[in-house]
Amino acid sequence: MGPLLGEDNSQQGAEVGAEPAGWGAAAQWGAEELDDADPVRVLTLPLQAQQAMGRMEEFVFKVWEGRWRVIPYDVLPDWLKDNDFLLHGHRPPMPSFRACFRSIFRLHTETGNIWTHLIGFLFFLILGIGYMFSPNVNYVAPVQERVVFGMFFLGATLCLCFSWLFHTVYCHSERVSRTFSKLDYSGITLLIVGSFVPWLYYSFYCSPQPQLIYLIIVCALGITAITVSQSDHFSTPQYRAVRAGVFLGLGLSGLVPTLHFLLAEGPVRAARAGQVGWLFLMALLYILGAALYAARVPERFFPGKCDIWFNSHQIFHVLVVAGAGVHLHGVSQLQAFRFSLGGTCTESTVL
Ligand SMILES: [Zn+2]
């Protein structure tokens, strides 16, 4: 049964004893079926018997996969315990990628987290492809501007892709969960840094020196955030506020170039030409998302009522997608403004 279960066989036996009764029984039963399917013995059987056994194995595995039931928080193993306000509806540990991916279509605590970023990922992927292949006539410097927008789309799609993948395979095993959580956190940094690129490019269009300095600083901060998020402690529940703080800090580092822009251009031009209004709305969405995430609101006030829908992590996910959408609209307006000027820098253009 090796090829059917792929990577799962070795871990299955190890997991069984530690898991809750329902899951343990199912896994144990699956493991017994595996013993019967010794590949050496299969080779010695007549063809018909092999085919019958193949069908049987497939059937057994399908049933085995479908047997899991959602379980309460208190029977979860420690590495799956993240939010004790979500009382029920958790997936058990499922050391099979196939079972994890199939669980996308079932209701549990991660369903909303998976779909919010899977849909967001597809949205930005299609939009990004559209931007990359839009006619050259919309750009002053087509290649350069596509690279700049490409950085945003790359950051957004990687962030959302790593996120839905992490939430999908989160229950696979401690090792897989830890690896994907690091990818998930790195994705948030990529989204933030990727968002800075087109904004700095168009906001400081006629001032290449501050433009470059701010870009270098945000890249250095991004590398620092990615490095910090590789620590095994970073993904633990105790570090929830630290995590929110790191990403909030990275995003809020944009306050320095924003103030620079406001002081140089004045509030009226900053709002009209600099699209600062959209930037503030984006910042508001991200800050609200990070605050709800860190404080675990609303499930804190309604323990057990937000297990499947409307918990803080899902709201945070939706706010991230909305924030990225608002940012894209803002930088598209900035791009249109520079395009309307033909990309020229005159005495009257301050930045
Ligand atoms: Zn998430």
UniProtKB/TrEMBL annotation:
Subcellular compartments: Membrane
The transmembrane residues are 114-134, 146-166, 187-205, 211-229, 241-264, 276-295
Q: Where is the composition biased (Low complexity)?
A: 13-22
Q: Where is this region: Disordered?
A: 1-22
User: May I ask which residue range the UniProt record assigns to the signal sequence?
Assistant: none
To which protein family does this belong? Belongs to the ADIPOR family.
Name used for this protein in its record: Adiponectin receptor 1
Protein's organism = Mauremys mutica (yellowpond turtle)
The taxonomic lineage of its organism, from the top, reads:
Eukaryota, Metazoa, Chordata, Craniata, Vertebrata
